[in-house]
Write a structure and sequence with these properties.
275 residues, alpha+beta, 7-stranded mixed beta sheet
Length: 275
């Protein structure tokens, strides 16, 4: 590695450290969920080597803006009201017609998920135009055999879920069974490939940006979750598996955004098998 590259990484790490300290000093402990200030919607992933560092700085800038304004990540989304359990926010989901991705936020009752530390979570989906041709591959046909009706017409495929704490900070990643979201899944490799190319412009700029940053920062962790999800499904393969309500969360992982930022979002590029 040349001296210029080393210097660039040192500067980026220093910027992350300084911004983390600044954000912590401004964050109010009573803030429940936070609303993001924007960075350019023209942002695109840089080469893999620097993608995580760019996402780190972007995420820090977002929460710095929130702290300065005393706003919540979900403030506009909730309309200043307390969230109603099970209700989708926004009501008809946040949809990026251009990129083909969509999401919604909701929360469960405490009785439904006892012991959970999350305030609620974001379900992320890909719309049909992103995956319809991928269904023709031999690998995807094999994965579809897990469903009783693999040809069932659905408009979305569930990708990943991001859990948020009461301050609006991502604290977990998990995958869920198909009955939870009412659609179907794609194999781990195709899911990961879609997430790798994901951009969001749903009109909810702040939340869109957090989702993008988390997916980039935790790309390896998400890949591991998807592999574990598929392994579990193949292990338990049986009629009605994707409709089995005793099987809800298929794989999950607690995450620490602050620790990830502390190391500058360091990661190793993951090569996903083509399907």
């Amino acid at each position: 590695m040349c001296c210029q590259e080393v210097r660039s990484e040192e500067v980026c790490a220093q910027m992350c450290s300084e911004m983390r300290s600044k954000v912590r000093s401004k964050m109010c402990p009573q803030v429940r969920a936070q609303e993001l200030t924007g960075v350019s919607r023209n942002w695109r992933s840089p080469p893999a080597k620097g993608a995580a560092q760019v996402a780190s700085l972007r995420l820090l800038g977002i929460y710095d803006g929130l702290a300065r304004r005393g706003e919540h990540l979900l403030g506009q989304l909730l309309g200043g009201e307390l969230p109603r359990q099970w209700r989708h926010y926004p009501e008809d989901d946040a949809i990026d017609q251009g990129s083909g991705f969509q999401w919604f936020y909701h929360s469960h009752s405490p009785e439904d998920r006892p012991g959970a530390a999350e305030h609620g979570h974001i379900h992320l989906f890909a719309r049909r135009k992103l995956w319809s041709r991928r269904l023709r591959s031999a690998h995807e046909i094999e994965f579809a055999s897990l469903a009783d009706d693999p040809n069932r017409q659905v408009s979305t495929r569930h990708l990943i879920t991001i859990g948020l704490d009461a301050k609006g900070i991502p604290i977990s990643l998990f995958t869920v069974n198909s009955w939870v979201t009412g659609d179907l899944m794609l194999s781990a490799s195709n899911t990961a490939l879609l997430l790798e190319q994901m951009t969001l412009a749903t009109g909810n700029e702040d939340v869109d940006a957090v989702i993008e940053c988390v997916v980039r920062l935790f790309q390896n962790e998400i890949w591991d979750l998807l592999v574990r999800r598929d392994a579990l499904l193949y292990e338990k393969q049986s009629p009605g598996l994707l409709r089995d309500e005793s099987l809800e969360v298929l794989s999950e992982l607690a995450i620490n955004v602050d620790e990830k930022l502390a190391c500058g979002g360091a990661w190793q590029q993951q090569d996903f098998p083509l399907s």
